[in-house]
Design a protein that fits this description.
CATH class of the largest domain: Mainly Beta
Number of helices: 0
Largest sheet: 5 strands, mixed
Number of strands: 21
Structural class: mainly beta
Order of helices and strands: EEEEEEEEEEEEEEEEEEEEE
Number of domains: 3
CATH topology of the largest domain: Immunoglobulin-like
Radius of gyration: 31 Å
Shape: elongated
Helix content: under 10%
CATH architecture of the largest domain: Sandwich
């Protein structure tokens, strides 16, 4: 698309300014949601560094994600994504010196603190996503188990990342466990990525289901004599994507006779 504007200069002529709208590059990546967990850690214990990578272009492509700690490259990963697809990329580093470390991942910045003093050894495990195939608008529960393995009582912030963002802080005594849950609601039909403190999963949301029916009418004794019994029925198949209980209206000689409601019929 060319946008043209002009400025009149009398008889000397016209200056014409034109701007050409730039097409979106075939593959363009956006990196967001840097999460560093835990923020405070005893030396010798791992720290998880994660971010969300999304292809916002129009073609499949690859990108190298580089993780730097204190200005030095410590790890890198290559991700390949289709248009509109996203993925959580996670790195793990283990500090050996007690100090504050700076972190950089593709233009995102953060830090964490390593200490010689014992801190609560809190583990996040057992990622559960339910349901894994929800309808659009249906609530999905994402939960993890947080356990203080040993050492001191302490608090830990559990971060939900990926296509959703939330956090919860729990305080645990040594040996104590708690289940931390998040509820999210998909608003469009697609695959959603989930990351919780270095644990990864996904679910796929589909369009809201609706019932649809195929109906076949059957009649026994098509040519009855006077006072003979005639039987008729319908065979209903739900060819839609959700259960349904159709109302059946019966007509005789073109005139309404009565209605009946079918029991719920599952798809297929």
């Amino acid at each position: 698309v060319v946008i043209v504007g002009g400025l009149g200069l009398g008889l000397a002529g016209v200056v014409v300014m034109a701007a050409l709208a730039r097409a979106a590059p075939p593959d363009e990546f956006e990196v967001s949601d840097l999460i560093i967990s835990p923020y405070e850690v005893q030396i010798g214990y791992p720290v998880s560094i994660s971010c969300l990578v999304e292809n916002i272009g129009t073609e499949i492509g690859s990108k190298t994600i580089i993780c730097e700690v204190d200005g030095a490259i410590v790890a890198e990963q290559i991700v390949t994504l289709a248009p509109g697809e996203s993925e959580v990329v996670t790195f793990e580093v283990t500090p050996e010196v007690a100090k504050t470390y700076s972190v950089s991942v593709d233009g995102l910045y953060g830090s964490f603190e390593a200490t010689e003093m014992p801190v609560a050894d809190i583990r996040v495990e057992n990622l559960v996503i339910s349901p894994t195939e929800p309808m659009v608008g249906e609530i999905v529960t994402i939960s993890v188990t947080v356990t203080n393995i040993e050492g001191e009582a302490g608090s830990h912030t559990v971060y939900l990342a990926g296509d959703f963002r939330a956090e919860q802080t729990v305080t645990l005594t040594p040996g104590e466990s708690k289940v931390v849950s998040f509820e999210v609601t998909p608003d469009i039909a697609k695959a959603y990525s989930v990351s919780v403190d270095g644990l990864h999963g996904s679910f796929v949301a589909t369009e809201i289901g609706v019932p649809a029916y195929s109906v076949a009418l059957g009649v026994l004794n098509m040519t009855p004599k006077v006072d003979e019994y005639v039987e008729w029925w319908v065979d209903i198949t739900n060819i839609g994507t959700a259960p349904g209980a159709p109302t059946i209206k019966w007509y005789r000689d073109g005139s309404y006779s009565y209605s009946s409601v079918s029991p719920s019929i599952e798809p297929g």
